[in-house]
Amino acid sequence: MTSIHKKMQLSRGSIAAAFSVSLVLLLAVEASGQPKRGIDGLEGLYRYRFDNGLMDGTKYKSENRLTILKVTASSAYFNTHLEWANGHSCDLSGVADVDSSGALVYREPSLEGRVCVFTIKQGADRLVFDDKEGSCRLISCGARGMLSGVEFQFSSRAKVRADEIRKSPDFARALEEYKHRSR
Q1: How far apart are alpha carbons 51 and 7 in whole angstroms?
Q2: What does the alpha-carbon distance between residue 178 and residue 94 come to, in Å, rounded to a whole number?
């Protein structure tokens, strides 16, 4: 065997080994429940229940929810409902665009001349909300509510009922606002 043949054989072997490692990693990610990058991998209904209470000591159960539904290859409808202490809540929905990092980013006029920039970022095993300037909180939350730092585990994701969502007035409103913004 010539040295050129040995190099080609080594290269083929290296390529086969790299392919095998890549395949194993891909299967491990699929098995872990972590969604694939992109909107298709994020689509679903995320929710979790937790103990909550009023200032008078009354205890009750709350549920935080997030729905993500693909609209186009680069945008998705989202709807989130968050519950906080003493009955305060946050409700925000709209159509967000995917940025270069794979995050969903929603922009909407807020109050006091500010702009709401709400981001849903993908972590290793969760989605994380960000409202850096707090402008989204102004238009969507009660006094004790907030958006930044809220997390939804990928493991809490269930299939979304796309047909029902597309028929909802909130989806129609969000889509109309998005089309108006995109002009």
Answers
A1: 63
A2: 7
Can you read off the two tokens belonging to residue 148?
């930044």
Q: pTM of the prediction?
A: 0.78
Task: Dig out the tokens for 140 from the structure.
Answer: 């969507």
Give the Cα separation of 180 and 176 in Å (integer).
Answer: 6
Q: Which of 81, 113, 74, 80 is nearest to 96 (CA)?
A: 74
- Of the candidates 50, 69, 47, 68, the one whose C-alpha atom is nearest the C-alpha of residue 59 is 50
pLDDT digits (tens, 9 = 90+) for 54-113: 989 999 999 999 999 999 999 999 999 999 988 899 999 999 999 999 999 999 988 888
Order of strands across the sheet that contains 151-153: 151-153, 126-130, 115-122, 104-109, 89-98, 75-83, 59-72, 44-53, 157-158
User: Residue 43, Cβ neighbours under 10 Å: how many?
Assistant: 18
pLDDT tens for each residue of 141-153: 998 899 999 999 9
Residues whose CB falls within 8 Å of the CB of residue 172, separated by 6 or more in sequence, listed in order: none
DSSP string for residues in 146-175: --TT-EEEGGGEE---HHHHHTSHHHHHHH
CA 16/CA 29 separation, integer angstroms = 20
